[in-house]
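Q: How would the structure tokens look for this protein?
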Amino acid sequence: MPKKRKSGGKPASHKGQSSTVQCANCGRFVPRSKAKQYTKNVSLVDSRIYKELRDAGAIIQRPSQRAYYCISCAIHKHKISQRAKSTRKT
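A: Here is the predicted structure in token form.
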């Protein structure tokens, strides 16, 4: 059977088996090198209070949350898009 991708769909993972992460949408376990990672900044303060504090000169930190998606969920949630049929490997 022909191999579709030389890299197996994993970018720059030439150090053996990588650890697995869980998809934030469906719960599937995916290798970390194959999963799509997204970072989202989360506000700990309500938006109205945040505006008042910012006007007063306060510095409010916004921690980030990291989410991993499997390929199928990333496509479904429009995090990544499929390539055009003409540019895909047949």
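The two ends are 14 Å apart (CA to CA).

The domain at 20-76 is CATH 3.30.1740.20 (first zn-finger domain of poly(adp-ribose) polymerase-1).

Upvote if useful.
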